[in-house]
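User: Can you fold this complex?
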Amino acid sequence: MVASLGLVKNHSMPALPKYKLDGAYDEMFSGPGTPRSHYQALYRTLLELPPADLRAIQQAADLSFLHQGITFTVYGNEEGTERVFPNDLLPRIIPAQEWRLIERGLTQRITALNLFLEDIYHRGRILEDGVVPRELVYTCRHYRREMRDLAVPRGVYVSVCGTDLVRLPDGNFAVLEDNLRVPSGVSYMLANRQVLKRVFPRLFRDYGVSPIDHYAQALLATLRSLVPAYSTPHREPTVVLLTPGVFNSAYFEHTFLAQQMGIELVEGRDLLVHDNVVYMRTTAGLRRVDVIYRRVDDDFLDPLCFRPDSNLGVPGLFNAYRAGNVSLANAIGTGVADDKAIYAFVPAIIRYYLGEEPLLANVQTYMLSNELQRRYVLEHLHELVVKAVGESGGYNMLIGPHSTAKEREQFRQRILASPRDYIAQPTLNLSRAPCFLDGDVEARHIDLRPYILYGQEVTLVPGGLTRVALKRGSLVVNSSQGGGSKDTWVLRA
Amino acid sequence: MLSRVADSLYWMSRYLERAEHTARLLDVDLQLRLEGSHDSGAARWVRLLDALHAPLPENGKVDPTALAHSLTFDRSNLSSIVSSIAAARENLRHVREQCSTVMWEQLNQMYLQLVGNPQPESWLHHQHHFFGDVRRGVNLFHGVTDSTMSHGEGWYYIQLGKYMERTDSLAALIGTHFAELPHPLDQAVESEEYLEWVGLLRWCAAFEAYCKSYTAELRPLRVAEFLVLDAEFPHSIRFSIDMLHSALQALGDLTKRKALAPTRITGRLRAMLNYSQIEEIMAEGPAAYIEGIRKQIGQVHHAIYQIYFDYPVEAAMAS
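Assistant: Here's the predicted assembly.
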């Protein structure tokens, strides 16, 4: 059923004139005019609702985002330009059995990655056994020597993870990248849901969508599970969210999560360290802090230990952390496990620690430090995607088929200068889903970022952020690069 | 509550009060300008600028239209209406998880409507609407705040900011009036002078309330008594100090930090206002009386910083 799709070229649907099928997996249609069973109700709604109504609904939704101030900040623009995160009206629907596979696959993955982090910051068995090359770990920019032999609460390094999944033309999901440092976007997942419930109440109810509203509670429970051992049970542990401040692109999310969890949103200047204990400055005097959900990168956490020019962090924080007087989520140094070069080894990491086959496939990845692979990549730049290993957010990457000769030449030079810093992957044909754009329903490429919490146990709220490449033909879904998002409905049955 | 958060709530509230106050002054002036002579209009503008701590134009020529425009839209003037609303919103944006969602939406909508949209050239014809929108927006915000936010610590910092700003701007306005106008007498005034005293009442949003208390017969001494000493009217100095004092006491209880210095000052001011008689104040010189209040309010502001917002760490560690 799915395999034949590749042969269908540019068949438009009479009812949705601008909706074209191509080689990509289509989330709504299994063939021209034949919706998949879980999309049938939405398809009928689209046929019945006059476009003018849909347009009015879209405008109401946009206004609601603007008034709520659900914005993000664009860098490289005028400082502090706030923009509404574009939201697409039509939900992306995932059947229950597909979700169960995703859930199991991601649980397996976060479990293995945590074991990997614990291992490389202690004995390093996996390096001794040669499963992951030692120099790959030690040359990673996000590897923190300071974390050697430091025991983190319950061995959990990554408490909050957002993993990007894509669906390939064969209909299978694959992991595009793991975000193990400070993944963002979960507030848009929750905000999208609030709006969609108002916009399509009947459709929502009839579909039987799994709820996601308990995310904040689950996150708080996860953070509380990290309370250091000293904390006496009769005292409520103090959990805070550390934000870089109002100019950070995800500031809305930080305020949103702090409010939903009922915890303090702090900036570096609100905290101070005295005798290796972290306090926050309150109107009632200094108050001890036990767990910090930090949305500040490693580099900026402690000017005494990491970047000395950082004003965002707290001097002395790392010593308090080492002394076991405060917990951080995520732990410091987790970036080594979402390095795009380490990524290629995640299937091997899963086999090594868990003795299981990975449930979710990786995307084929070329290591540019390997001479043979590098030569192949340099000859095929026009058809590959090249990414910097330590970057995220769609910055510093080359999409071969959409690149100019000059851009390819720039990347060739960069790769030759520091092959360790880049990887290449085939240009993926991401699956496409219906979007409502300028009064018409059109197909756009999407991905999926579910959020995984690792507290007493691994928790996934059923759903995630479905990101959309709003520009026609574009494959880049990052909000910083003109992407939007849509609500994700995971069905109960 | 974090000190930074308390600080932001306090200033958010001060800026909103400032925006509302300026809008009210300009709105009332619009109407006064239609009546009365050109000279009295110019003299009133001098008082108005003084009360808003705004500089006189360098050439000494008072052009109400240009001045009103600058006091409303000039972003380089940090006290203009538009700057104040933007600053209030920025302060709330820094602490928006502390307020209710409706509060944020109210302020954000007001900002988008009044500051985000450039006002068309034709705003001159719609000034009244613009000022009305500002005043309504601020009042709505306070209404939403009172009914959706817990009346706990955060709410008291908002109260503190509102009444601190109000006391200060009322005192500036009334003080300027007493210093400039003929000595207020206990008899009805007429024509030009009548207009000035009505103007003062309306600048303080007090005309209707005054009439209810004293009838429409306008005696300057009664106007002074009403604006300074009335216990029930929300834009009187005594009322504002009462509110300041109870907010400070509530904060002392909530934070378990005795706000000795500021409550001592507000308590003393309160007692003074409770037992003052307007005749005495007039006899001893109203301008000095009002100036004394303003000075002490300034001390309260500094004391609040010392206790809640910006205390030295060593002191906090020792306690």
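The two ends of chain B are 18 Å apart (CA to CA). The interface with chain A takes residues 1-6, 90, 93-98, 101, 104-105, 108-109, 112, 153, 251, 254-257, 308-309, 311, 313, 316-317, 319 of chain B (CB under 8 Å).
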